[in-house]
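agent> call fold_tool(seq_1)
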Amino acid sequence: MENVRDLNKKIYVGNLSYDSTETQIRELFEQHGKVESVAWITDRDTGRFRGFAFVEMEESSANAAIKSLNSELIDGRELRVNEARPKESRAGGGGGGGGRNDRNSGGGNRNKGGYNSGW
C-alpha cells in the first residue's frame, strides 16, 4: 500500500503579505481540497514570517489550487503559487577564516624595535 504522503504534492506559495496568517492560507487552499499541512516559513533569528509558505495537498486538489490561485490578489499582493521544487543541496560551507595556527602569523616583523634581534 502506498504512503498517503506519496500521493500528495507540495506547493510553494510566495509573495504573501507579512500580515498573512497560517489559518488564512489554509482556508484559502481548503477551497480546493483537503490540506494535509502548511509549513509557515519564519526567519530563524527574528522569528518573523518571511512571506512564503508550503502547502501540502492531494495531487489533483493541488493542481486545481495552483491553477486557480496563482496570480490571485490577496491583501493587495499577487500570489505566486506553483509546485515546490526539491530543496537544493548546499554544497560546501562557504568561507569563514580558519583559526590562526601558524606561529608566524600576525604581529608584524618581530626583528624590529624592542625585540631581541639576536634570535
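agent> call fold_tool(seq_2)
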Amino acid sequence: MSSKFYILTKHAWYILDLPSEQYAPFFHGLWLRHRVAHLLVSMALASPRLTYKDFVSTFHITPDSPDEVSVALTIIGRELNENDVQSADIVCIPMFYVCCITL
C-alpha cells in the first residue's frame, strides 16, 4: 500500500508532497489524518496482533524508522504522537474508530 498522497484532477494524477507556505495550514491537518490512517492500516495488515501501545510507539523517530514515519519531520516539523491519534479530527474517521477498537 502506497503511503503517498494522490489527488486526481481532470488533467492528471498528482502526488501531494510539500505544500507551499500559503497552503501549509490547510494541508497539515489533511496530511495527519491520511498518515495516521495509512500507518494504522499498513501496520495492522503487517502485524494483526498489533497493540495500541505498539502502534503509538512506532511514531518515535530513530535512525531505523521507515520513511513513512520519519517523513513527519519534513511535513509537520515534528514526530507524530499519541495526541495526533486521539485528536477529534482523527478519531472521527469511522474506519479508524473501528480499527482502534480491535487493536
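agent> summarizing second result for user.
Residues 5-102 form one domain. The longest strand covers residues 5-8.
agent> awaiting next instruction.
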